Input
Amino acid sequence: MRLNLLDRWDATPLNYAGKNKDISTLLKQNGGIFGTVKDYINVTSYEPIQSEDEVRLYYAALNDDLKAAEFLKQNSRTGGNWNPNSRDIDNRTPLHVAAS
Output
């Protein structure tokens, strides 16, 4: 999983962690850096969510559902379609969503 992917505003998951010290520390310890957040950036291309498993991963990230994320990870090893670096329409990864 890549920790420093930028969303459409050039924010990384560390930007989204905000004042959550535990998440911020964890991201920093693993090489997380802050992005240079912009008010608006015109995104012309992104890799859209491709599968139902990726949609499920976003819901797991949004709801802090680690068990669901782990299940999807295990399922991907047996043929599931799971990409932790997938992007939504705002160019955010599941890690951006989870950190927020």
In short: The helical segments are 13-17, 21-29, 52-62, 66-76, 94-99. The chain is about 40% helix and 0% strand. Residues 52 and 89 are 15 Å apart (CA to CA).
